[in-house]
Amino acid sequence: MLERGNISISGLISYEVDAITLTCNIKEKNMDAKLKVPTFDELIRPALVAMKELGGSATHEELLEKVIDLEHIPEAVQNVLHTARHTKLSYNLAWAKL
C-alpha cells in the first residue's frame, strides 16, 4: 500500500469503476428522457389533427400510425410497453380519444 496522498492501485481501479458506473447512469437517464412517451393529454390535439387528415374516421391502428407520422415519434418510443400486449403510446392514445 502506498502512503497517504498517493493513489493506490486499488484506489485507481475503484475510481475508474465509479467513473464508468457514473457514465452508465448518466446515459441511462438520458435514454429515459429520450424515451418519454407522450401522455394522453399531449396526444389529444395530434389525435384530432390525425383524424381530420384521415377524413374523420379511422381505426385505432390507423389513427396511431398517423399520429406517429405527424408527431415524428421515434421507434424506441413507439416500442415502450404498457402491458405485454400493448404499447404505452397506444394506451395513451386510447385515453386521448375519449
What does this structure look like?
This protein has about 100 residues and is an all-alpha fold. It is built from five helices and no strands. The model is unreliable at about 5-30 (pLDDT under 50). It is about 65% helix and about 0% strand. The chain folds into two domains: about 1-35; about 40-95, no CATH class.
By DSSP (H or I, 4+ residues per run), the number of helices equals 5
Strand content: under 5%
Average pLDDT over all residues: 79
The largest sheet is: none
Q: What keywords describe this structure?
A:
98 residues; 2 domains; 5 helices; 66% helix
How would you concisely characterize the structure shown here?
The chain is mainly α and 98 residues long.
Layout of helices and strands:
Elements: H1 9-34, H2 40-53, H3 60-71, H4 75-78, H5 88-96
Helix pairs in contact: 2-3, 2-5
